[in-house]
Specification:
alpha/beta; 2 domains
Amino acid sequence: MNLVKTFFTKYWSIHNWRSLVLFLLFVLLLIGCAHYGRRIRLGNVEFFYTPVISAVEAENFGNHLVKRGLPTDKHIILQLDRVERVFELRYIILRGMQQDDRFLERLMVAVSTVPKELYPGAKIRVFVTDEDLKTIREMKI
């Protein structure tokens, strides 16, 4: 115990404590953002994917959506997941932001081509969620 006390009194000044607190706040910020998964940028669209989706699948899916008309000019957040054999795509609406219905319509058109062109026979569910991934509504494809 005396060794620990000596270490902290000798090697940790007030400046080091501030640095430690700032570092811990930074780590907490990173952890808070990481719950959506890994990220790919598609213009201004942040496209996240969970660990059950490979990086190649995520790239293919995201690029396919862009080729099929997904607008990339506004800051939008999407997340791709898979439960059993069903892809789940979430359109995440941050607090204080309005749902962009025009974007949602174009997203649905792009998503509807995935089972025919990219992953034949794949099932896809699309959800509008809040930033905590709580479903606001499920969209019909």
